[in-house]
């Protein structure tokens, strides 16, 4: 699904590459943790996959297609095929939970009846049934992140990219959120999560890709966080 | 197509939300558009009415040819009739001249003293031209003929009305352009504020794969709505005022040539043109801000 071949990303000419000669393959339906210390390049790698950033060297293919060569239209379709989840949720405070989730469908021009059907279903899947009319500030951090996840899955994307999704919640809540990602993955959606939550990584026994200073220093099926620390 | 309607539906709702959030600035911008269009429209209506009055005056314009005592009237009549561009010629002796003058004053008794030997008027010809434009040249030629004492055709009046109205036109266009620029700038400011307020939303929408137009359209619609609202207010006020004015002139006009422009085609042209202009001003303001402040 994703094929990266010696991908490097240099933000400012002359500075150390944020991502350096990374080659990575991710198949459809995989669950991958990206781990590594702060500044290792996890966020950059996620942005390269979502094509918020372009590589300065190397090649990234998504579904066999070179992402750097996208035309405007293909870029939009690329973004609509993935669901992004952020550490700070990025929900709009002026909109209700329902409206926040609906936005993902509205930007892709889905008809109102489809929106009315899909939004409550997505909210039910993340355990937020009944919170449709609440505003983000009225929810706990964990609930806000669940709303963020509902927005990411409401279009039934091929892939979920999550950057430190449990960074702002307590351990107990984090566990629930990770289990949610696991359930989503069981439905066939590829899930890639950048995280510091080593206990979760160790518990879930998924593929673990370790980064250090922009390079891949470990890639294990059913890995654990331990190698980096 | 269905997708397009969904987009439009969404954009319209966003525009309305933005407008209600910035309602005061939006109202001021719409008010500014209203004022500048009302002034432009007012001047336009004055201009078409002056133009019509001028044409009324000119089409009734006669050259009064006053004759010397003892001029050879039949010979002169023949000479004048030979000139190019004459459409009418009649002889008015001093006696009839006085009667006509008395009638135009509305009180014939007033001039009783001046009848007969006391009549100060000379005999005269009244000459009409085929066009108002030909009148000054004709008057010049006739003045050269022997036996003609002087000619008069109200040329000074026409010239000064023309001068005033052309000055008024340039002035009103300048004022309207200034006001319109101010209004466009204000719309731009309103839209800029909307863009700033929605910066975070724009970022999220981009992540979600919103097209550039999907992001821009609400702002464009917001500007167009401001333009439309402002123009509608201006046209309502202007229309009402003009209706009163026209009614007054039709019912109570003191002078035959003071008749308002009531041609529906002309009025639709003016009001429709103003409507398009106002909407365009709103659109221009938002395009300006979208291009400068909305990086998509
Ligand atoms: N937009 C940016 N401009 C310049 N440098 C950046 C930018 N984003 C990240 N970096 C740098 O790239 C490196 C990797 O950062 P990042 O990908 O955020 O790491 P992580 O998410 O693993 O903490 C860091 O040295 C960081 O300072
Ligand atoms: Mg990061």
Describe the structure.
The complex is a heterodimer of chains A (229) and B (296). Chain A contains seven helices and ten strands. By secondary structure, chain A is of the alpha/beta class. Chain A has a six-stranded mixed β-sheet, sandwiched between helices. A four-stranded antiparallel β-sheet of chain A has the order 2-1-4-5, with helices on one face. Chain B folds into two domains: 2-57 and 158-293, no CATH class; 62-153, Alpha-Beta Plaits (2-Layer Sandwich). Chain B is built from nine helices and four strands. Chain B has helices spanning 2-21, 23-59, 73-82, 94-105, 135-144, 155-197, 199-207, 212-252, 264-293; strands at 62-67, 86-92, 124-129, 148-152. A four-stranded antiparallel β-sheet of chain B has the order 2-3-1-4. The interface between A and B is medium-sized, with 21 and 20 residues. Bound molecules: adenosine-5'-diphosphate (ADP) and magnesium ion. The site of adenosine-5'-diphosphate (ADP) has 11 residues of chain A, from helix 1.
Give me the secondary-structure topology.
The complex is a heterodimer of chains A (229) and B (296).
Chain A: E1 2-9, E2 19-26, E3 31-35, H1 42-50, E4 57-62, E5 65-66, H2 72-80, E6 82-85, H3 97-106, H4 112-125, H5 141-153, E7 159-163, H6 171-186, E8 190-194, H7 198-204, E9 207-212, E10 215-220
Parallel strand pairs in A: 3-8, 3-9, 6-7, 7-8
Antiparallel strand pairs in A: 1-2, 1-4, 4-5, 9-10
Chain B: H1 2-21, H2 23-59, E1 62-67, H3 73-82, E2 86-92, H4 94-105, E3 124-129, H5 135-144, E4 148-152, H6 155-197, H7 199-207, H8 212-252, H9 264-293
Antiparallel strand pairs in B: 1-3, 1-4, 2-3
Helix pairs in contact in B: 1-8, 2-6, 2-8, 2-9, 6-8, 6-9, 8-9
The complex binds adenosine-5'-diphosphate (ADP) and magnesium ion.
